[in-house]
Amino acid sequence: xxxxxxxxxxxxxxxxxxxxxxxxxxxxxxxxxxxxxxxxxxxxxxxxxxxxxxxxxxxxxxxxxxxxxxxxxxxxxxxxxxxxxxxxxxxxxxxxxxxxxxxxxxxxxxxxx
Length: 113
Fold this sequence. Notes:
By secondary structure, the chain is an alpha+beta fold. The protein has a single domain (3-109), classed as Aminopeptidase (3-Layer(aba) Sandwich), CATH 3.40.630.30. Helices cover 36% and strands 23% of the residues. The protein has helices at 13-25, 34-44, 93-109, and strands spanning 7-10, 49-55, 61-68, 78-84. β2 (49-55) and β3 (61-68) form a beta hairpin. The chain starts with 6 loop residues before the first strand and ends with a helix.
């Protein structure tokens, strides 16, 4: 897999939540849909919950990560879940997701210029 063709981007509810729900269904016992994920996500946004997706050059979602951003109720960025599609495991995508999380955390803790 050519990791240079991979991007990590914020998840778009309309475009990505169905894919994220399908990935979650490979790991969780409660079934998820784009609609149930959107409903849950809308309730969690006040706590800084955000989703990022790993996308290949054809726009296919290969993995996702949920994280919390610093807010009045959370003092640091944390990863709440990271899932890579079964066909794309052991390729370095999980590491890319966590590197992006660490970069986001680092930037959030730097003093403003």
